[in-house]
């Protein structure tokens, strides 16, 4: 475990920015680290509003898997509250962040759960595009000093485990959950749907 932690810290220091890093690169990384996460809910909304029945089912499954994975993160953080780099006095940090447990990364979990669900749902091109964005976000959060590399690897492991655990549950009740969500959507937004502003 000590060797793994030493490797984790060494990789972090190799990626982490320094005061000598150009300001334009820091500013770019700040946008990537803090704002690109919003592409996930935006993609889910677009999948729901413009997608077919299969894409809507994938969107619901992605939401469910992501929420379960984030819940698992909270339990892991309570059981093993690994400190963030700046709490340990390691490297340099370029934006304020709460000193909560760093492992696993919630940002990494959101992207990895989303990517895995897309790939399992047959949306390969969208999944691969999301994978590229997720990797860049993971890099930016390490680069800016709020996460360690193993936080991101841990996020992928949690998402994989959650997908595996959720698979039989989804097979059993995913279709019913999707039908319920579609019925609720049609009831709540009946007016705009009737006017043709939204897809039924």
What's the short story on this structure?
With 200 residues, the chain is mostly helical. The chain has helices spanning 2-15, 23-35, 39-50, 53-79, 106-120, 124-143, 149-188, 190-194.
Could you describe the 3D structure shown?
The chain is an all-alpha fold and 200 residues long. The chain has one domain (21-194). 73% of the residues lie in helices and 0% in strands. The chain has eight helices and no strands. The protein has helices at residues 2-15, 23-35, 39-50, 53-79, 106-120, 124-143, 149-188, 190-194. Helix 3 (39-50) runs antiparallel to helix 4 (53-79), helix 4 crosses helix 7 and helix 5 packs across helix 7 (149-188). The longest helix has 40 residues, at 149-188. The chain is globular, with a radius of gyration of 19 Å. The termini are far apart. The mean pLDDT is 95.
């Amino acid at each position: 475990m000590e060797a793994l932690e030493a490797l984790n810290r060494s990789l972090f220091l190799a990626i982490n920015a320094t005061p000598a890093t150009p300001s334009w690169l820091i500013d770019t990384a700040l946008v990537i680290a803090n704002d690109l996460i919003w592409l996930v809910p935006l993609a889910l909304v677009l999948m729901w509003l413009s997608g077919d029945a299969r894409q809507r089912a994938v969107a619901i499954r992605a939401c469910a898997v992501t929420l379960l994975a984030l819940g698992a993160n909270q339990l892991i953080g309570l059981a093993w509250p690994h400190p963030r780099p700046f709490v340990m006095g390691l490297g340099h940090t370029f934006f304020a962040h709460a000193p909560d447990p760093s492992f696993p990364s919630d940002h990494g979990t959101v992207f990895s759960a989303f990517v895995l669900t897309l790939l399992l749902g047959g949306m390969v091109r969208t999944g691969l595009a999301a994978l590229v964005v997720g990797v860049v976000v993971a890099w930016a959060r390490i680069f800016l000093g709020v996460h360690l590399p193993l936080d991101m690897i841990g996020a992928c492991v949690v998402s994989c485990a959650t997908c595996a655990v959720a698979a039989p549950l989804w097979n059993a009740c995913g279709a019913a959950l999707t039908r319920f969500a579609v019925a609720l959507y049609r009831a709540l937004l009946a007016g705009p749907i009737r006017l043709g502003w939204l897809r039924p």
